[in-house]
Amino acid sequence: MFAEVAFPISNFQTFTYVIPKGLKKGIQLGSRVLAPLGKRNCQGIIIKITSKTSYLGKTKAINSLVDDVPVVTPELWKLICWMSRYYMTPLGQVAKTVLPKQLSTRYKPPMRWYVQPVPVVEDSLIISIKKKYPKQFKVYNIIWNSNHPIKVSSLKEHASSPIQICRSLEKRKLVTLLKQVSLPDVSGFSFEPLHKKVVFNQDQDGVDKKIMVALKKQKFSPFLLHGVTGSGKTEIYISAVHYCLSKKRTAIILLPEISLTPQIAGRFKSVFGDAIALWHSKLSKSQRSWTWTQICKGKFKVVIGARSAIFAPLKNLGLVVVDEEQEASFRQDSPAPRYHARDVALIRAKYENSVAILSSATPSLESYHNHITKKIKYLHLPRRYGGAEYPTVHIVDMIEYQEESGKHDQVISGLLQDKIEERLINKEQVLLLQNRRGFSPVIRCGDCGSIRNCPHCNVTISYHLKTNNLLCHFCGFTESKEGKKCHECKNSNLLYFGTGTQKVESIMQETFPNASIARLDIDTSLRGNHMTSILKLFNNGEIDILLGTQMIAKGLDFPNATLVGIINADLGLHLPDFRVGERTFQLIYQASGRAGRRQKQGEVVIQTFSPNNSVIKQAASLNMTKYYKIALKEREELNYPPFSWLSKIEILGPDKGKVSRLSSKIHNEIKWKYKGLEILGPSPCYLEKLRNQFRFHIVFKSIKTLDPNGKKLHQFLNLNFADINKRFKLGQNRININIDPLSLI
Ligand code: ADP
Ligand code: ZN
Fold first, then answer.
1. What pLDDT band is residue 186 in, cutting at 50, 70 and 90?
2. Among 191, 230, 242, 439, which residue carries the largest CB count within 10 Å?
3. DSSP letters along 431-476, please?
4. Distance between Cα 199 and ligand 1 center (Å)
5. Domain edges within the chain
6. 2-72 under CATH 3.40.1440.60, yes or no
7. What is the mean pLDDT of residues 601-606?
8. pTM score
9. Which-ligand-closest: CA of 205?
10. Nearest CA to ligand 1 atom 22
11. Each residue of 306-321: pLDDT tens digit?
């Protein structure tokens, strides 16, 4: 018997080995082995087992087997190969992205004490404890009231030594103590499990049935689940996962950003308990490798996580859900492979014969177009669960407001301020969206007018109040604000313009000194579980006003939040990119969806400097179908996706002249080779210099009539760019190939 072994070397070339007799039983597809490569013994993965070999040289033998279970499934290997071909990235690099950095670990998750009440207890016993041991009684009450086992350590605030008290209670036969595995980070990232009775309404029932039918068939079946915010999509996923598990199949749920969605994790946890693994960036290396091997061993049946969870080595995958499928965070832009987890999810589902559900209240135009052209089955939940009304939306024309009020740098309009005040009086909550972090994003010299840029990037540097620093949001460069002078005229008259979340926060604190205010953005979320704790506080009503960047716009479900304020709806709308309209629409629509999710009527105030802009207008009327119609027409006229296929070659280097010359040289060589393409550029990117690298790009668009499925474009790229390093002297320059890029900035 022979085996093809792939090693994580740069090109991931595969080599043929003999499988020695002693290893025949243990070796399977996806097993990790040690085998001689050159003079060393290297770790590789078995990707094929054959009885014959076409290799004519002398084949060496595999030395030993590393693990007792395979670390990738054959389907997952097939996916890795597809990614390598499609995203034009060496196999080794794809494999490096897919597999955790380390696969062997001594790590074992800690065991923790949990406690649960004994179901039936005599009243007299409880009465006597209440009298004699009030401390024990207090703790017992908490345990009794919770209807699932709770961590003994969580009782710390009620007793100095909770374990001793629990032991005493156990002796009295009031509670049972259990030692359970404490899974990596699950508790830190999820809310306490919720227990609620779920009764599907008619819409949900219809959707659920269609998914069941597809799951039963065990064939590739892609769906677009389009459900307004709060329509109960998450309950649909839970039901589908239930069904999968009952059929001994497994499931992956992809979320845009797991720390933003502790509620969803909590809901899954309460239903599926320890069958669930969370896969996210905050796991340590050893927790990752432990989780990975547990999945390989079949210990976890459901994996929830951000984009790389799509590579979870689950066997028998029955279902993949991509929640908020339009989110840009599903795209990995650097390093290669530059992949989109939603597209990879579809391919994986195809290889595994599973159901794929792309889900959203505001689908991407691509997925929506696939529904219109019937390439994907459409499921619709048009109403909020429980009949919650959609919010009333007010648009404030900020130019008019500022002129009328004479307050030209006013950030909060009179209307928004009044509405916030109303909410505070009624003890309801407010969400404020300002999609820009920091305090002031623009620093301008008051004397000569020049704008302060990051020295490494050609973008403005932002002022951050908390650290009193100037910070570049691209490369992280910081400098102290103190003693700064203008780069041009050397005067110290620097003025701070524009509004970031920190400025909104300080305005709120001044205007509403008695309100409790919290802020969520990248700067606050870097601190451990800060995000989850803020969300919990907001959920418990301990925060009146929660403000933040787009982080607060999605997935969250707060019954008492009845007002959403969008401080500046135009942010990002004027960037030169074909997706900005779609993005802005989705953000406003999603943020509006946070208002009034239960009985109380919600309101939204949208502040804008362009009230007549069609994106803002359609978003404010919450008219998705109309906006999507307009946007698709525009895309078709301009030949942009979903009506064409797009690829981008990015040329980067430290010297602008050299980057520019190299770009032209490449362009000149290839532009004649294929006539069925539209080629834009070469031109400097909109963000021309980032991290000391100058950036140029050449953009390729397929033409619908000549290349409807983008195959010719892909062939063209393969032909011309696969060996680009060999044909051109790159020197210090680099070339990135970006297939289906999300943005052209
Ligand atoms: P979405 O994911 O579409 O935003 P959710 O699944 O979060 O919507 O549903 C909104 C709220 O309604 C949640 O609190 C959810 O638990 C509740 N809900 C949805 N469907 C049901 C149901 N069939 N029975 C009980 N509660 C439901
Ligand atoms: Zn910078």
1. very low
2. 439
3. EEE----SSBSEEEETTT-PBPB-SSSSSB-EEETTTTEEE-TTT-
4. 10
5. 2-72, 111-181, 192-376, 392-436+500-633, 438-498, 643-739
6. yes
7. 90
8. 0.87
9. 1
10. 198
11. 999 999 999 999 999 9
